[in-house]
Design a protein that fits this description.
four-stranded antiparallel sheet; 4 strands; alpha+beta; about 170 residues
Length: about 170
């Protein structure tokens, strides 16, 4: 993969991420408790009294809710209330799934953008550090060359003053 492709969206990967979240949605019961919110294809209704539960059940069926085929979500009757787990109407499920897909895509693109920004920052810092090292080394080399030239000049003067030549 070339660097220009490195931070480009991968549609196959995005599809897998979306499918994963949709699968969880289809298995979950919606929770609206603050701090524990989650979207689910099924909703739970706790209704006090059997007659009220039957009335609520019929009204929910009339607006598109359907019974689930999951045994774990079968209606439960306890003391004076009934717990119903029903699948949301198809239009609501479709809308929820579209929202999930859009949310996953936005999150995925934001992550790619963040990773790209971090990689760019790291590369810029690395290049700047490399340039600083080269500049510092050039300064050291220049200083050493100047010192060597100064040494050679003084040495030549000393040898000339002593009347000898440099071997």
């Amino acid at each position: 993969m070339s660097t220009s492709q490195l931070f480009q969206p991968d549609q196959h990967h995005l599809q897998k991420l979306q499918d994963y979240e949709i699968q969880h949605y289809r298995e979950d019961v919606q929770c609206n408790v603050e701090g524990k919110q989650r979207l689910g294809m099924m909703e739970c209704f706790e209704i006090h009294g059997l007659q009220a539960a039957l009335d609520k059940y019929t009204s929910l069926l009339a607006i598109g809710y359907t019974a689930t085929d999951n045994v774990a979500h079968a209606p439960q009757i306890a003391m004076d209330y009934v717990i119903l787990h029903l699948k949301k109407p198809a239009a609501q499920i479709e809308q929820d799934e579209a929202g999930i897909r859009a949310s996953v895509e936005a999150s995925y693109l934001e992550t790619l953008s963040t990773l790209k920004a971090e990689a760019v920052k790291k590369e810029v810092e690395s290049l700047l550090a490399s340039e600083r090292r080269k500049k510092e080394q050039a300064e050291v080399d220049t200083k050493e060359a100047a010192e060597a030239a100064e040494y050679a000049r003084v040495e030549a003067e000393v040898l000339a003053a002593l009347g000898g030549t440099h071997d």
